[in-house]
Design goal:
The protein has 6 helices and 5 strands. With 151 residues, the chain is an alpha/beta fold.
């Protein structure tokens, strides 16, 4: 797996209860490939509120402590909405490898949001690999990305 992000920084990862099992498996998947992870929770399948995990992941990416982020919940919408409140965060809900790849190439996404109730673990790993290997294309896409922020 080639890596388009800073390999010297960890990946920030978080989930709610619906994404807990996926998060744990994805951490193992990444660590076996030499990728460090900062786990922001949840730490069990007990019911939890996704903003409690999405905000710390977004802050870690926003502050440059992590090279990118991974957020997982049932639909991925809640974590994406939460993370996208942070300046400089471009959290993308992904459901296929191609969507994950395009989120990086065209939108310079820095957080991938995975809908655990709608994709398999294998699809999640494939999307994550595509996201990590893709690089922002810049050019005409840079102009568009610059127009995203409101402040």
């Amino acid at each position: 797996m080639s890596f388009a992000f800073d390999k010297d920084k960890p990946v920030a990862i978080g989930s709610d209860h619906a994404g807990f099992e996926y998060k744990e498996e994805i951490i193992r998947f990444l660590e076996t490939r030499g990728v460090k992870c900062s786990n922001f929770g949840a730490f069990s399948k007990e019911s939890a509120d996704y903003p409690d995990f999405a905000h710390p992941v977004a802050r870690s990416v926003e502050n440059g402590e992590s090279c990118f982020g991974i957020l997982i919940c049932g639909s991925a919408n809640g974590v994406a909405m939460t993370a996208n409140k942070h300046p400089g965060i471009r959290a993308a809900v992904c459901w296929t490898e191609e969507i994950a790849r395009l989120a990086r190439r065209h939108n310079n996404a820095n957080i991938i949001c995975i809908p655990a109730r709608f994709v398999s673990m294998e699809e999640s790993k494939n999307m994550l690999s595509a996201f990590m290997e893709a690089s922002f294309e810049g050019g005409r896409h840079q102009r568009r990305v610059e127009k995203i922020a409101c402040c």
